[in-house]
Amino acid sequence: VQRDLNVAVAEFTELKQQLERDTLVLSVLKKLQEFDTTIKECNSALQEKQYVAAAQQLEKARSSLRSLESRRGFELKILKALGTELTVQTQNMIYHLGEEWQKLIVWKLPPSKGSSSLEAVVLSELHLHTVPPQDEDTAVPPMAAVLQALAVLGELHSKLKDFGHLLLQYILKPLISHPSLAPVPEEQPDVFILRFRSQELALDESSPMEVFEKIKLVFEVLHKYLLNVPLEQPGEGRVTLAELLGELIWEELSDCLIHNCLVNSIPTNSSKLEQYKEVIESTEEFEKALKKMQFLKEDTTALLKYACNVDSHFANKKCQDVIMAARNLMTSEIHNTVKITPDSSIALPELPDPGSGDHVKLARACSLVPSGTVSVGSESRLSPLTLCLPCCRISSSVQQLVELAYHTLLEATASTDLCCVQLFDCVRNIFQLFYEVVPTYHRENLQKLPQLAAIHHNNCMYIAHHLLTLGHQFRYRSTSVLSNGAATFVDLVPAFRRLGMECFLAQMRVQKGEILERLSSARNFSNMDDEENYCAANKAIKQVLHQLRRLGMVWQDVLPVNVYCKAMGALLNTALAEIVTRIAALEDISAEDADRLYSLCRIMVEEGPQVFTPLLEEDRNKKYQEEVPVYVHKWMTFKELMIILQANLQEIVDQWADGKGPLAEEFSAAEVKSLIRALFQNTERRAAALAKIK
């Protein structure tokens, strides 16, 4: 019995395994049969142009093949052939759908494909063969079948992407960029055509409202003839074509609308901000219309957010425009100048007096003055010119720059707190930009041309002069953000003064170097009895005077009178000091040498003062020519040297007057003794004279 039982178990196990194999083979054969059936049905549906059914059969075949391939330990060579067949059928289906797509949507593009110029766009046309035939009443329009089939196969995304790219390039972006372009929709019995026409416009830019209307018109006709098709999208459920297209192109389209349309509509003046509400309302209506057509999702508000944030955009645009205008002024020519006088009026905005509340504040401030302080009464008024900038010439571009700063600050006072602070910072940036840009951009000219160096000096002083009170003037006009005293430019004043002085002093060093170089060719003023040496010295003197006259002319009516006189005095002083040093260092001066040296010095004394011509009116310059000793420190030293060159021993001793005479004021005892030894022979009289020089 035990043996029969074992045999029965073995037979049962074998039968069970055989049944499992047969069941597996049967299921595989069933799947193969399903695959074959779906492929046949797909071909049949394709021939009848039932694209949705054909696509669904293909997907069933793909599912069957995927099921077969997933069985482990069961591989059939036929699976590879089936995979190839499925690929061929799929590509065949995609090809047919592609042809149908091309029949539905026809682009007629200009010969120069890729060009988005106005001439090229006018030649572009979009033909939609999606108008349902009048004589046929079909339950499912052919267009919907083609689109659904593409969706089933997963090819709709790529088709829509290409369509969206062309739509942006040849329709939407040109409508935004070219104000004169207008869409012209035309419906015919079997086709809808979208063309364009170009019309003459008075303005170079169209308003956002006009652009929105054009774009909305395009989407309305597209929605009517193409996009209003519900589709079953795998993994997403039921969606419309408009939603799918919106996801693909809205980001790029909204960026284009912002940067090429809304940005240009941002007001450049705060007084026009109220009018911008119309743009905000138009933007809101535009987004609502697109959402109604399901092109946009309900939570999409990129355009509206940008339009509503107009204060920030206004401030950014204003700052950008101001900085660009300032930079253009900074890089313009320095030599175009205007004269600044105490009574000259700059085109600055009229600033009203502080309000009554401010007078209270001022009254309280005055009460803090110590009781012992003497008040300046009406009888002891300061001169109206006390705090005025002296007469000089500045670059017209710098005058315009300061005007720009004033007008920008006036704009800030009429703006919101955020905008006010931003515009105030922008004005500070203007001056910091000037500090960095001008010395670098004009470096070569400032080094080579003395007149430009003088004008730049005046420019810096002019800016510093206005910076002293610029913030204070707007204190009572600005918002609470800036009225607490933080709106100041005083910290920039020392830097601008230093900038102007350093540039001018560098030019002074160059001029001093040229003077010393010319005097170095005078052969140390030695052996003047030699005609060649005398001619060289005479030439050097005349070259120095010519240089000073030329500088006097280029700085005339440019520098303030006091700066002009100090500068010319310093340069003339350099020449006189060098001549005195060279002559005082001579060891032997003959009588003829002394006469010739005296004649050379007389040229300097006679013609030197004539280089002082700060004003255009000649008769007004005499005053400054007579004041040469005030500006030339070595003037009296030079005149004393001339006296020594013509004097005898007794006259020199009298001039010394035991160290109390005018000669002692200008020369040391050692220098006088050296000159006496050089001028006079070694005699008892000379020894006696030398003994008196102590």
Topology:
Blueprint (H helix, E strand, L loop, with lengths): L1 H46 L3 H19 L8 H27 E4 L9 H5 L2 E4 L13 H12 L2 H22 L3 E7 L4 E7 L9 H20 L2 E4 L3 E4 H25 L11 H16 L9 H7 L1 H21 L6 E4 L15 H11 L25 E4 H18 L3 H25 L1 H6 L1 H24 L19 H27 L11 H25 L5 H24 L6 H17 L10 H9 L1 H4 L3 H12 L2 H8 L5 H5 L2 H11 L4 H9 L2
Antiparallel strand pairs: 1-2, 2-4, 3-4, 5-6, 7-8
Protein name: Centromere/kinetochore protein zw10 homolog
GO biological process, one term: cell division
InterPro entries: Zw10/DSL1_C_sf, ZW10_C, ZW10_C_2, Zw10_middle, Zw10_N
Brief description of this entry?
This protein is mainly alpha-helical and 694 residues long.
- The general outline is elongated
Estimate what percentage of residues fall within beta strands: 5-15%
For the termini, the CA-CA separation is 159 Å
The neighbouring-strand order within the major sheet is 1-2-4-3
The oligomeric state is single chain
Largest sheet: 4 strands, antiparallel
The Rg value, from CA coordinates, equals: 48 Å
DSSP E strands, number: 8
Helix tally?
27
Unreliable segments (pLDDT under 50, ≥5 consecutive)? 134-141, 354-379
In helices, the fraction of residues equals: 55-70%
Mean pLDDT: 81
Structural class: mainly alpha
Description:
The protein is mainly alpha-helical. Among the domains are: 1-103, no CATH class; 109-132 and 140-254, no CATH class. The chain is 66% helix and 5% strand. The chain is built from 27 helices and eight strands. The chain has helices at residues 2-47, 51-69, 78-104, 118-122, 142-153, 156-177, 208-227, 241-265, 277-292, 302-308, 310-330, 356-366, 396-413, 417-441, 443-448, 450-473, 493-519, 531-555, 561-584, 591-607, 618-626, 628-631, 635-646, 649-656, 662-666, 669-679, 684-692, and strands at residues 105-108, 125-128, 181-187, 192-198, 230-233, 237-240, 337-340, 392-395. The strands form three sheets. A four-stranded antiparallel beta sheet has the order 1-2-4-3. It has a two-stranded antiparallel ribbon with strand order 5-6. Strands 7-8 form a two-stranded antiparallel ribbon. A hairpin with a 4-residue loop joins strand 3 and strand 4. Helix 6 packs antiparallel against helix 7 and helix 17 (493-519) packs parallel to helix 19 (561-584). The longest helix has 46 residues, at 2-47. The model is unreliable at 134-141 and 354-379 (pLDDT under 50).
